Input
Amino acid sequence: MSLALTSATRLDRRSDRPPVTVVVAGLLVAAIVVVAAVAPAIAPYDPLDQDLLALNQAPSAAHWLGTDHIGRDVLSRLLVGTRTTLLIGVGGAAIASLIGGGIGLVALALGRVADTLVFGAVDLVRALPPILLALLLVVALGAGVGSVAIALGLSFAPFFAYVARAAYRREMAQDYVVAARTFGGGPLHVLGLHVLPNLAGALITQAAIVLPRCIVTESVLSFLGLGSSPDAPTWGRMVADSSRYIEIAPHAILAPVIAIVVLTASLSLIGDDLRHRLDPLRHARGAAGPEPQP
Amino acid sequence: MNTLAGLALRLGKMLLQAAAIVVLVFLLARVVPGDTVDVLATQGDLTDAQQQVMRHELGLDRSIGAQLLAWSSAALAGDFGESIRFRRPVAGMLATALPTTLRFAGMSFVVGLVIAFGLAVMAATSGSRRTTALIDAVNIWSIAFPTFCVGVLGILVFSVWLGWLPVLGSMVLPVLIVGIDSAGQIVKPLYEELREATAAAHVRTARAKGLHPLRVVVVHLLPTALPIALTLSGLVLAGLVAGTLTMEVLFGLPGMGSLLLNAIHGRDYPVIQATIVVIAVALVVINALTDILHRLIDPRVTA
Output
């Protein structure tokens, strides 16, 4: 974040203050991160504890957000679920940027043959929409926090490869790179020392755009019954669990749905703002352009 | 590059992509610990000898390469094997599910395009603030509200609270939800393109001549926007996959999404494999067709 903001001031001469909506979004995300950090300490109940004498109860003093169909406290599940939801989303985006950006850059630096091969393969994998690829990967890897994060990471990696390529080609044409190569700098030396620092902005922006999509995709997977294991509740899983009881216990499904919307909307607003600030290529509709959201 | 070679190249890429999907899906389905026979063995008592016989009958004792070849050539002939759970040909199950999904996706696609084009044309020709604000709203809506969350809220509001039944099994609500979502993804770039087009000299001339505004839009404005509309439609189609999948499950529509989900829960690998391959290959073919159309409409496109 701090890196993003420093390069923002450098790249963006306007250096205007973020709009109020983005500030509010930032505060909401900060609050959600704090909740994720301290969730087990502030959760009033064990999120897995079932109270079979209190099924589908409406919100009350004892259960602020009520209970679900097997008597688990919705508030506690929501709080503890924050951590798993964020962990998978951030993990997925991080894996995607490392794999996508890393493979893309190394292929580019190694020359035309590696470039053609790797991006040919990326093009082929890209034919599968992220949601289908992620679904398939979760089926193959099995349920669990780690495997869902890896599945998301692999599914969204191609976007980073494309962004890395676009930014790389732009940087390689710059005078300072040409100078470094003229003085005998090898491809990896030029890449690591000269180009990479200037690509960071583009990759961070892409990560900010992909993060909410990872979170949505995770909740869709969970909603389809393919997410983390039952003992690690996520918001998507809460929606899935409660969807059959929507008529008798709307609160149990409303709480996670609102949480997902608040988080993804806030992150999207921040990502969009970052893109406008950081990305000098924003007028070129490249790989980071409009992309369907799950 | 001449047109014919370009077309051949694009078709070649399409075939490669389709083949890559088949291989990828096939390999990933084999990574899962335990094969079809293991799944069956957990459902009923099977002796080791019986399992061996079944593996041989199903061809599971052959190498992965041989299995892949056998599956692909059968699939090309329309034979996707047999469902483990239902002991029915997978092709028949796909044929039952496909019309629902095509209808749902098709209607959502049309609703999305109508909303997006309507708003973009209105805003570009009138320049009204209110319409551009609406465009922003639809755009932010599609970014911020995942379709399945909107679906849940929709069921809650219209079915549970307002009692406007029946929501389950009806396509109206999910089509609207996915349609608005699709519109939001494309309306902004479409509007920007149309706004540039309205400033073009030939459109100004047409207006100055006093042509009917509708004629200006249909004859002079829309053709310019056709190429970008095609590109954006491709994006919408890919986005429809997730929307269709979740909406079918949420609203109980018996399409490919529901089929896939049931297969996943029943570990019915032949069905999982066939469903994903059919959806993905359909997307690859549609994308290739839009690219080719794009090339035919807009001769500047060579890549």
In short: Chain A touches chain B through 46 residues (CB under 8 Å).
